[in-house]
Every structure is written in structure tokens, then in C-alpha cells.
Amino acid sequence: MKDPFEAAIDESPPESPVETEQTPEEDERAMGVRRQLKKRKTSVVAEPTADPVKMAKMKAILAQFTENQISRYESFRRSAFQKGNMKKMLQNITGNQKIDPLINIVVCGITKMFVGELVETD
């Protein structure tokens, strides 16, 4: 499972490869696939690939952690604020009953970072 912070940092998917000359058979097959996708109303989305440089840096950093630091890091990664409770708090603060789900997610993330900073300075 990919961390939301890592997903936000990832660059957009690579551009599609340079088009090459297709034989008439390949062109017909491609048209058939497009027609099927239109009928199903689905699309093909390219999965972003992990950056090997970032992975190597992360491994190097984690290799230097003590057992206590690894335990704290794993706990931080697994922790999350309940969106329902955060929504209630935002409704009380703003007085607005409609809270955008994206705002709720952002506030949960900022709160998690704030609590992480408090724990780190302890």
C-alpha cells in the first residue's frame, strides 16, 4: 500500500511511447479495443512506478535507525485520525454542516503531522 504523502510527491505518469507505424491488423485490433473501452465506459490508467533513487535513499535512512526509532516510525506510518471524528470537530468549529471530504482528509493529514512534531520534541 502506498503512503498518501509519497503518492502526492510522485510525478505524473510517463508520456505514452512514440507512435510507430502499425500494420492494418494491429490498427484494427487497437480500434476494437477502443470500441470495447467505450462500451464499458472504462479507461486504462498507467500505474506510477516507484523512483529507484528515492527508494535507495529511504533504505539508507532506515538502515541507520535504532530499534526505538524504527518502532516510532512504524507507529507513525500506521496511525491516522478518524475522519468521522474530524468531521464532527470541523462542523463544530465552522458551524457548517457540509464539510468537503477532501478538506477533511487534508485536516487529518495536517493534524497527524502536528502530533508527530509534538511527539518528536518530547
UniProtKB/TrEMBL annotation:
Region annotation (Disordered) ranges: 1-45
Keyword Repeat: no
Membership in a protein family: Belongs to the TAF11 family.
Source superkingdom: Eukaryota
GO annotation (BP), single: RNA polymerase II preinitiation complex assembly
Alphabetical list of Gene3D superfamilies matching this protein: Histone, subunit A (1.10.20.10)
Record domain TAFII28-like protein: where: 61-121
Subcellular location: Nucleus
PANTHER family found in the cross-reference section: TRANSCRIPTION INITIATION FACTOR TFIID SUBUNIT 11, TRANSCRIPTION INITIATION FACTOR TFIID SUBUNIT 11-RELATED
Keywords linked to the UniProt accession: Nucleus, Transcription, Transcription regulation
GO cellular component terms, semicolon-separated: transcription factor TFIID complex
GO molecular function: protein heterodimerization activity; RNA polymerase II general transcription initiation factor activity
SUPFAM superfamilies the UniProt entry points to: Histone-fold
Organism field: Arabis alpina (Alpine rock-cress)
Full protein name: TAFII28-like protein domain-containing protein
Keyword Ion transport: no
InterPro entries in the cross-refs: Histone-fold, TAF11-like, TAFII28_dom
Phylogenetic placement of the source organism: Eukaryota, Viridiplantae, Streptophyta, Embryophyta, Tracheophyta
